[in-house]
Amino acid sequence: TDKGQNDAEAHLRALDQRHTLHPWTHFDSFEREGAMVVESGEGCYLKDANGKSYLDAVGGMWCTNIGLGRKEMAQTIAEQVEKLAYSSTFVDMTNGPSALLAEKLASLTPGDLNRMHFTTGGSTAVDSAYRLVGFYNYCRGKPEKTHIIARDQAYHGSTFVTMSIGNKAADKVTEFQYLRDGIHHISAPHHYRAEGNPSEENFTDQLIAEFEAKIAEIGADKVGAFFAEPIQASGGVLVPPKGYLKRMWEVCQKHDILFLADEVVTAFGRLGHFFASEDEFGVVPDIITTAKGLSSGYLPMGAMIYSDRIHDVISQGDENRWFTSGYTYSGHPVCCAAALKNIEIMEREDLMQNATEVGAYFEEQLNTLNDLEIVGNVRGRKLMMCVENVKDKASKELFPDEVDIGKRIAITAEGLGLLVRPIGHLNVMSPPLTLTRKDVDFLVETLRA
Ligand code: PLP
């Protein structure tokens, strides 16, 4: 790279350091180092402002599912901006892309999940879903049924209520107080770290018993919903033990509790399906929240998707009843047009099949790292994977925090042209669905190095 580019990069980095508060800023390292200035993206690759290229195994932020730089997406977005850049969808207006996307999504969702409430991203989808749970139960004469049960290590977004529903230990270290009333947490299905090394079957039994006990403690007549990511993403790519999700769903049905699948990460191909709940885990949720791969990061977009059954309850009765949730950009015509084109590309290029095939190869190859002293556990499914680094393989003891092992590995990989995401002692990967076997080989070789 020439000097001019380096100066430009340094300038942008300094401006950013001076004026931007990034998501989840770690002030100490940000003030020391600043952020990488990304300039362009093509497929699974990013280029920084110094001209260095990286395989982006993070997939942006679990979201660049069809890969970056597609002319077809640019054209669709430009055409929609020219035609209708914005119109509101509050109550008495709609637009073509919003209506068409709603119908398309209904054709892809499981069961009778035919109702779409469009949002600006994942957090707002889960936030709206929280309100829907209370509203639905109020409408059917069960106003007490507002309590939510979620899991430890869950992440459901960054609004106040979604941060309260999530329970990642690393996010709750400050003195900041989140909502506590009516929000309960049970154990994460973290098999690798389960006490006493139970078999998968025994671990599932334990978790089901804990769920039943929690419902009994609160009172089933007060529990409105169970919120669960099918695979907990930023909590550490926690693949639940065999039978767990289906049995949790059965417990919900038994106690008249809504099952909410937070598919912000797991939908749109990461696990080789448009939606993972039913196709991967045999569960038909009452509510699905999604975002990210819905528009592959080309534009911000999310959706809360819920059943006809819920809709029939909330839409009938008292004339003066409103479901008070929605956003200026709900059903944004340009975002919806981008999401529709994104889905069309996924179908036309059969990216579900590529995710399934290359995902299986990725799983297999990443598992070869198990022979390394530092690798305690390789887990995940298909294009949603994670390496848990440990100081001692046998005891599973972690490195002390100050070693910052995930970050050290990520920084070293970055130098070698590979981006993996550090989350504490983990390195997490969620590459685009267009990943090739050659990319997998490079990724695994680089991580090994
Ligand atoms: N739910 C899950 C499972 C997520 O992983 C995320 C983001 O990573 C969110 C919700 C929040 O989505 P957003 O950042 O688009 O608001």
TrEMBL record:
Its cofactor is pyridoxal 5'-phosphate. One of its GO terms (molecular function) is transaminase activity. Pfam families: Aminotran_3. The keyword Transferase applies. GO terms for cellular component: cytosol. InterPro entries: Aminotrans_3 (IPR005814), Aminotrans_3_PPA_site (IPR049704), PyrdxlP-dep_Trfase (IPR015424), PyrdxlP-dep_Trfase_major (IPR015421), PyrdxlP-dep_Trfase_small (IPR015422). Transmembrane segments: none annotated. Keywords: Aminotransferase, Pyridoxal phosphate, Transferase. Signal peptide: none annotated. It comes from the Bacteria. The keyword Chaperone does not apply. Belongs to the class-III pyridoxal-phosphate-dependent aminotransferase family. PANTHER family: AMINOTRANSFERASE, AMINOTRANSFERASE CLASS-III. This is Aspartate aminotransferase family protein.
